[in-house]
Structure formats: C-alpha cells, structure tokens
Design brief:
Length: 415
C-alpha cells in the first residue's frame, strides 16, 4: 500500500464509509464496497496509476461498486416481472446511481448519520454503541473491547452479529423523521462521548478532533436539544485544558497543579456559553447527563485558581447528575466535590465513601482507592494517605497513573 493510500486508509476510511453508507443506506454493503475500492486503489498504484486524490477516488469507486452490487442483487431476485414495474425500477436505479456518483466526497454529516443508522432499535444498546465506535469512528476492535470490558474475540463476534442484524432488518434511519432522530440521538451522543474519552485517555488528538466535529454536527442538526449542546460544551471545556493535562515528563497534572494561563480561552468561552444553554434549554425536563457534566467542567474552567473553585455548586450539580446518570464515576465525583466543600469536608466525605463498598469493585475500584487516598491527604492523615496511595498503586495498571500515584506516595512518606 502506498503512503498516500495508507494515509487515506488511516485518516479518511471512516469518512469514506460514512459517505457511501449514506448513499446506499446499508452499512454492510457500504463496507464491502469500500474494502473493494481500497483494494482497487492499491492495484492502480502498483500499475503506476496511483490516484491523485485517493480519498475522492476511493469514494467514487466505492459508490460505483455499491451500485453494481445492488444491480446484481435486483437481477438475481427478479422482483419486478412486470414491464411497467421494470421501467419504474430502472428509473429509480438511475436516480440512485446519479446520487451516489455525485462529485462531492464529504458534506460533513455523513459519519453522524451513519452513527444514527447503526444505532438501530432492534440491536442491544451496548452493541449499537460498540458498532458505531468500530465501523464509523474507526476505533480498533481491541480498544472497543477495552471500553466494554470484554475479550477482543467476544467483541468481534458481537460486532459481526450486530452488523448482520442491521443488514437483515432492512430498516433504515430517516434524518427527516423527528421521532426516529430523537430515539437514536442519545446513543449517538454516547458514542461521540466515548470516542473523545478514548482519545483523551490515549492522548490521541485525531480521535478528540473527530469527536468534537461529530458533536458540532449533532448540535447543528438538533440546535434545540440541550444534551447535544451539553455534549459539545463538555468536549470543548475538556479540550481547553488539554495542553496542561500532562507534564514534560509525561505524568498527569492535577487541576490543582495546572497552569491555568495556558488553557484555551476561546474554547472555554464557547464551552461555557453552550453549557449555560444546555442547563437552561428545557423547562419541561431536568438537565441531562451531558448538560450537568458540562456545567461541572464550566465551573472548573471559570475558577481562577484551585482554591477559588466553587465546590458547593459543583457538589449540587453532582447531586443532579447521580439522579439522571447513577454511574460509579458520577458517585465518586460527588463524594470528591463534597470532600472539598467547606460545608462538608474530607472527613464527612470519607465516612460517606466508607458506606459505599460497591465503589471499590469492578472498573472503578482503583479510582475509588485513589479518591480515598486524596481525601485522607486533604484531611491531613499523612500515614493513612500513604497506605491508601500504596493500595491504589497496587490496583492500577495504567503506567501514567502509576507514576502519578508513586509521586503522591513519596510526598506522603516524606511529609
């Protein structure tokens, strides 16, 4: 594979798939066509005829392949025996072909529409999101498996079955159907959020950029939806702090230690406006998960220093968040906010944490141990904090987090 085609595969495959799937309305057919088009591009390059613009060439060829596959399928089925019906079908096929072979490559919304397409009501929620991450966003199966805490072969089998289920159902997503859009949008927003989370955890700027672009698309097609505004706000506010997230030694930097003068003020301003819109956008329903998370991020963003953070307000936002999204992560965030609130304090937060043994199990166990260590540190319990940091270190496999915990442990032992 040549450098240009390889670059198109790594950076544009998801967009190409989205453009083709938008034309044919079938993920499996589009994927087959795109794979064949990439193979033809490699063959053309080997023959000395490498396309000048591989992404555009592959998109056009994939659409032609999809047309051919559809024609063969229609011919094989012999579904239109009547002459008049044959003529009508021929005209419809020509119209579809003209649409698929239009000169543009990407119009901006194809991937979001494809995410909405695969968020199929007849597929289990977890599989819908996994399918969108893998085939629309281009996240490798191994990383999708990590997100859902299953072995890679298990996730591969689930993805195959889910894709076949959507293909066999023949049901399609209608972008102009408000009911269909409302039903599928929550899964689409969750997919975009997870895409950003994966990029954030791995310092992958491309995935983060893709997620922000998709969030903007969601906001554009549903400008009055508070959760679409909330998601975009959350991503922008998080991205604004990205330059201070890691030190020169590739270690995590806490909000307390971050150089806030380096935060992106333009992203913060836009995110804060959107977060306000999200919180006040619906008078009929309480704020949703993304609106509340964005509000928390916004309060961190406007605080000039760590000590000036409005912890009581953040704790109240977490009170609402655990009502609409009672995840372990949200519950730990609430306990932390209460621990730093002057009207509650770390001792009371530690007592509350001790009553929640389920938080020390599963995926958030290491995080819960680190929270306990931080609260003990805030309470001035130096020896106990050191023991807690050692326990959190033992439970953590991420090397960046381990380096951070080692530093915290050393600080407590030296205190």
């Amino acid at each position: 594979m040549t450098t240009a085609i390889e670059h198109a595969y790594r950076t544009e495959a998801a967009r190409i798939l989205g453009a083709v799937a938008r034309s044919v309305g079938d993920l499996q057919l589009a994927e087959d066509a795109v794979q064949e088009a990439f193979a033809r591009a490699v063959a053309e390059a080997a023959a000395g005829r490498e396309p000048a613009n591989p992404a555009a060439w592959i998109t056009t060829v994939a659409r032609r392949i999809a047309v051919d596959l559809r024609r063969r399928e229609a011919t094989a089925m012999r579904a239109l025996p009547a002459l008049a019906a044959e003529e009508a079908g021929r005209e419809a096929a020509q119209a579809a072909e003209a649409d698929m072979l239009r000169d543009d490559v990407f119009t901006g919304d194809e991937r979001l529409e494809l995410i909405l397409l695969v968020c199929h009501p007849e597929v289990a929620e977890e599989k819908r999101v996994a399918l969108a991450l893998r085939f629309v966003c281009g996240v490798p199966t191994a990383q999708v498996a990590e997100v859902f805490l299953v072995p890679e072969p298990t996730m591969a089998a689930r993805l195959t079955r889910a894709k076949k289920r959507i293909h066999d159902s023949r049901l399609r997503f209608a972008a102009d159907d408000p009911g269909d859009l409302s039903a599928r949008l929550p899964d689409a927003l969750t997919t975009v959020y997870l895409l950003y989370t994966i990029g954030h955890a791995r310092a992958d700027g491309r995935l983060r950029t893709d997620a922000i672009e998709l969030a903007r698309d969601a906001r554009r097609i549903r400008p009055a939806d508070p959760e679409a505004a909330g998601l975009l706000a959350l991503l922008l506010l998080t991205e604004a702090r990205q330059t201070t997230r890691l030190s020169d030694l590739d270690e995590f930097v806490t909000l307390a230690e971050a150089d806030r003068s380096r935060w992106d003020r333009a992203l913060l301003d836009e995110g804060e406006r959107l977060a306000t819109d999200a919180l006040t956008g619906s008078r009929e329903e309480p704020p949703g998960r993304f609106a509340l998370q964005a509000a928390v991020a916004g309060l961190h963003g406007i605080a000039p220093t760590w000590t000036a953070t409005d912890w009581p307000a953040i704790a109240r936002l977490y009170d609402g968040l655990v009502q609409v999204w009672p995840s372990a992560t949200a519950q730990l965030g609430r306990i932390v906010a209460r621990g730093y609130s002057p009207d509650v304090g770390p001792e009371a937060a530690l007592t509350e944490l001790a009553t929640r043994p389920e938080l020390f199990e599963g995926i958030v166990a290491a995080q819960a141990l680190a929270v306990r260590a931080d609260l003990l540190r805030a309470a001035g319990e130096t020896s106990s904090a050191a023991d807690a940091y050692a326990e959190a270190l033992e439970a953590t496999t991420d090397e960046r987090i381990r380096r951070f915990l080692r530093r915290r442990l050393a600080e407590q032992r030296e205190a």
